[in-house]
Amino acid sequence: MSSQDTTRQLFTEIGCLEHPFMKASVDEVVRVSKSCQKLIDTEMVSIIKAFDELAGSSDVSAAVVDARLAAMQTQIEQLEDQMQEIRQAESEVFEMCAARVQHLQNAETMSADLWKQLRVNRFLADYLLRNGLYDTAEKLAAVPALASLINVPLFQEVRALEQHIRNREFEPVLVWHARHEQRLRRLGSTLLFKLELQVFIELIRKDERAEALAYARTAFPKHAQQHMDTINKAVGVLVFPQQHASQELLSEERLEDLVQQLRRNNFALHSLTAQSVFDATLQIGVSAFKTVHCGNPNTALSTCPTCSKDMQPLAAKMPYSVQTTSKLYCRISNARMDEHNPPYMLPNGQVYSEQALRSMQETNGHITCPETHNTFHMSECKRVYIV
């Protein structure tokens, strides 16, 4: 294979895994740019309208004119301050995007092992952040080579919101939702309903039933068409708090469910996939190694990743790999069996490599099978030919 073909194959493989990595940063650039344009349009319309009203007024005193001009000047100065903040955010987003592009381009020029290790560390940091292991992830992401490749602040905001949910403080989360309400609605999110439902439930838990009923009248009507059954059950808790359905709504597990949904919605808002790349690549790797013999105590190999105790739960859910050619390995020596180390079958049907059998051979030529503990002479072993 030519170097050009190798490079093309490398970037094809990278593209499959790294598309979300780049898409998230590009979408962030677009979002910041749109926010900037929206701010300019809104504020400038307001300023121009105020100026036109002032220009069209003929009977306005000098003091009023000065006051209105001062107000417009203040508004313009505030706009400048906001623009400065947005420019700073734009600069940071562009730097992040450029760093990610450079990181992918380095795959062609950097040492392959070094680049792959850097990418694995990035996958790990992303996985840790997604699963709430923030302290560990932040330590890993603090490495200079990784700092610009992982958007830690994106997760830090949600980390604080998660703690508010666990503390039953829902107002900050509702404020966050209001800030992203339009986009969350387009995504079909039900987070707002579940947050308001939980506020209602917490009022009942504190036995503030009058406040709970008043809150329900305010919050639930807009959700009635889509969530009427759940609303009926929730209101029923006011009357029958000991019923089975009530216990389900009062369950402590609902808080953790809210945390998980908040994370998923945050991923969607920032164009992050629901599943981490670390999960996806691990599953692909496990599936590539998995055969029908994996997990069977009689045929498992200590060097096989899918046969290991830690991997078996994950491997059980994965499909078998498609192999056009097979490679046989000895269960004793873990060495490959081929024409230089052919497989031999004992009379009891167990197959091992020639080298392993020679190493087990006693001075009198006898071999004890490690599986059945039967003893045979080396001359009784027959070579196996794979067609």
TrEMBL record:
It comes from the Eukaryota. The keyword Oxidoreductase does not apply. One of its GO terms (cellular component) is nucleus. One of its GO terms (biological process) is proteasome-mediated ubiquitin-dependent protein catabolic process. Pfam families: CTLH (PF10607). A zinc finger (RING-Gid-type) spans 304-372. Keywords: Coiled coil, Cytoplasm, Metal-binding, Zinc, Zinc-finger. Residues 62-96 form a coiled coil. Residues 304-372 form the RING-Gid-type domain. Residues 155-211 form the CTLH domain. The keyword Metal-binding applies. Its main location: cytoplasm. This is Macrophage erythroblast attacher. The lineage of its organism: Eukaryota, Choanoflagellata, Craspedida, Salpingoecidae, Salpingoeca.
